[in-house]
Amino acid sequence: MSTILEVRGVSKRFGGLVAVSDVSFSIDEGEILGLIGPNGAGKTTLFNVVNGVYRANQGTITFAGKDITRCSPDQVVHLGLARTHQIVKPLNDLTLLDNVTVGACFGREYLDMAAARKVASEVLQRVGLERTDMMARSLTIAGKKRLEIARALAAKPKLLLLDEVLAGLNPTEVASMIALVRKIRDGGVSVLMIEHLMQAIMSLSDRIVVLNLGRKLAEGKPDEVVHNSGVVEAYLGFPDAVHKLTLTNKLTWRK
């Protein structure tokens, strides 16, 4: 199995604030990698560095064998790396089909309108949004998150970055979204996802990377990470709590 994304020694500063400090990890083709950590840990900043919104102050990012450290977001998406955003902002006055057509046109070069609409229609079916003529404003939160994913998938990515796609969903919607993420991976798209819903991210991910205060705190399989004493201390504030934890429902971030 080959590596599709390699992040090495990446740091990002905003003036005197170090948001991400010397972070390294990699993702293999066909893998779901979970990125977890408390609010302010640097997760979304790291996403923004990977997809070109921010320039890293230090380190390198390699995607599909190409150095993308200094690439812009449009260059990155054309290479096959797409993302969703934590706060979904569909084009409310356009239909679902038009929303995803925009994603197809932006994400792929030299795609005419007829071809873009065909791609958009196929992707909407893939994510379970069948009423393609519905206005985006009519969607529920769960529907808007699926639309956000559809817009990213319309670019035909090799790697998809998902930023809290489970936030704000009820248990039934969470289960359905988990199934969709697995379906995306099974369709040949690797996934890097930020999530605070621990039960879901632990069950979905092949591996987990934990950030805390901008630094990588731990990395490993879910059952390894959940019993890492450093992770437990960051979560709960005292290291001897590890024996009280279970993988499915005891691990939550301190507020």
List the helices and strands and how they pair.
Elements: E1 3-14, E2 17-28, E3 32-36, H1 43-50, E4 58-63, E5 66-67, H2 73-79, E6 81-83, H3 96-107, H4 113-126, H5 141-153, E7 159-163, H6 171-186, E8 190-194, H7 198-204, E9 207-212, E10 215-220, H8 222-225, H9 229-236
Parallel strand pairs: 3-8, 3-9, 6-7, 7-8
Antiparallel strand pairs: 1-2, 1-4, 4-5, 9-10
Helix pairs in contact: 3-4, 3-5, 4-5
In short:
The chain is of the alpha/beta class. The protein contains 9 helices and 10 strands. It has helices spanning 43-50, 73-79, 96-107, 113-126, 141-153, 171-186, 198-204, 222-225, 229-236, and strands at residues 3-14, 17-28, 32-36, 58-63, 66-67, 81-83, 159-163, 190-194, 207-212, 215-220.
Walk me through this protein's architecture:
By secondary structure, the protein is α/β, with parallel strands linked by helices. It is built from 9 helices and 10 strands. Helix 3 (96-107) crosses helix 4. The longest helix has 16 residues, at 171-186. The radius of gyration is 18 Å and the shape is globular.
Can you tell me the residue ranges where pLDDT is under 50 for at least 5 consecutive residues?
Answer: 241-255
Strand content: 15-25%
Any idea what the radius of gyration is?
18 Å
Structural class: alpha/beta
- End-to-end C-alpha gap: 38 Å
Mean pLDDT: 90
Order of helices and strands: EEEHEEHEHHHEHEHEEHH
- Basic shape: globular
Major beta-sheet overview: 6 strands, mixed
Numbering strands along the chain, what is their spatial order in the largest sheet?
6-7-8-3-9-10
Helix content: 25-40%
Count of DSSP strands: 10
Number of helices: 9
